[in-house]
């Protein structure tokens, strides 16, 4: 006795539901894969490609209307940017704040900067540096 095939002939009745589901899964996988690659590229650029600038206040001298700050900046030779400095009075009020640009083509920049104040400052602080 022979057995008859219970499957319909190939291609005669359209796609099966399994083939349709497989195509959706492949499309979804391709979209998610592209999104993952874009995310990895973004993080790689953000962490590896950005310019690092570091600085420190070496010393400062105060007077009634200004603070002289010796600032030391370390950066890439072609990096440009600015550092924000501030001074506070003895009671904690901010008496001066300014951004100072550095455009020199050097890896280390030493500058003595004058920060004008509205009253006698007791501090010379570096708030941070930015590339740009």
Could you characterize what this model shows?
With 132 residues, the chain is of the alpha+beta class. The chain has two domains: 14-50; 54-131, Immunoglobulin-like, CATH 2.60.40. It is built from one helix and six strands. It has one helix at residues 17-48, and strands at residues 54-62, 66-74, 81-88, 94-102, 108-116, 125-131. It has a three-stranded antiparallel sheet with strand order 1-2-5, with no helix packed on it. The mean pLDDT is 87.
Instruction: Choose one word for the global shape.
Output: rod-shaped
Structural class: alpha+beta
Number of domains: 2
Distance between the termini: 85 Å
Note the total helix count: 1
Could you give the order of strands across the largest sheet? 1-2-5
Give the CATH class of the largest domain.
Mainly Beta
A few lines on this structure:
This protein is of the alpha+beta class and 132 residues long.
Looking at this protein, list some descriptive labels.
alpha+beta; 132 residues; Immunoglobulin-like; 1 helix; 2 domains; 24% helix
Tell me the layout of helices and strands.
Layout: H1 17-48, E1 54-62, E2 66-74, E3 81-88, E4 94-102, E5 108-116, E6 125-131
Antiparallel strand pairs: 1-2, 2-5, 3-4, 3-6
């Amino acid at each position: 006795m022979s057995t008859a095939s219970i499957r319909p002939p190939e291609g005669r009745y359209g796609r099966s539901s399994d083939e349709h589901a497989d195509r959706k899964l492949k499309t979804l996988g391709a979209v998610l894969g592209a999104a993952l690659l874009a995310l990895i590229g973004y993080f790689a650029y953000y962490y590896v490609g950005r310019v690092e600038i570091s600085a420190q206040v070496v010393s400062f001298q105060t007077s009634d209307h200004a603070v002289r700050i010796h600032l030391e900046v370390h950066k890439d030779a072609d990096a440009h940017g600015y550092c924000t400095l501030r001074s506070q009075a003895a009671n904690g009020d901010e008496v001066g704040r300014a951004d100072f640009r550095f455009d020199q083509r050097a890896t280390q920049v030493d500058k003595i900067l004058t920060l004008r104040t509205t009253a006698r400052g007791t501090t010379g602080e570096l708030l941070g540096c930015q590339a740009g």
